[in-house]
Amino acid sequence: MVRLTADLIAAAPSFLNPLKDRELDLRGHKIPVLENLGVTRDQNDAIDLTDNEIRHLGNLPKLPRLKMLLLGRNRIASLADSLATGIPNLERLVLTQNLLQSLSDLEPLAQLKRLCFLVLQGNPVTQQQHYRSWIIWRCPSLRILDYAKVKQSERTAARELFGSSLEDMTPLAAQIAGTKSNTFDVGGETAMGRMSEAERQRIHRAILSATTMQEVVKLENMLAEGRLPDRDTVMSH
Question: Would you say residue 112 lies in a domain?
Fold first, then answer.
């Protein structure tokens, strides 16, 4: 397996894709963990991480420009609860042939308010009863799910099954929401998940203000480990 280092990211091809988006190509490196993406300085509209060994979708820096994330043929079994914090403007997400199992494990996707294109084909979760209806209910911005257009009749049926909102959910919706699989990857959020939002923002500001790649890598590692830079480090940028 190959670590997603700053050098690997710097050497990766970057180009305008057919959608005229700036895309970073990180396919096929057998990368096990997402890290060091802060060195991209949020310069990409799309990142292709197809054909790697990623187990947990998380540990993402602030990437508000990112609109498309390709993660097909990995080993992803869990999604970070804070997923939308790093990629709030994501519109297209491809998770084909991963290991997601439970409908409630997909809950972080509901926080991606601009998500309109989602592919989960090839995951065990697609065999769950009410799979398509549940995703449509929790992700109302979706227009395409598994390459099929979301119909208004499907939205209506989903509301009838699960309720008009989380505050008015049906017993079936409550049952599904309370069932999570035991697939959390220890190497996923770790200490970062225990940091407060203010602490994470403090490091993110330092990353955006860093002047060298070495500084960015150092700060990215601190974020992943849940360590805060000293105040002098932040004030100097």
Answer: yes
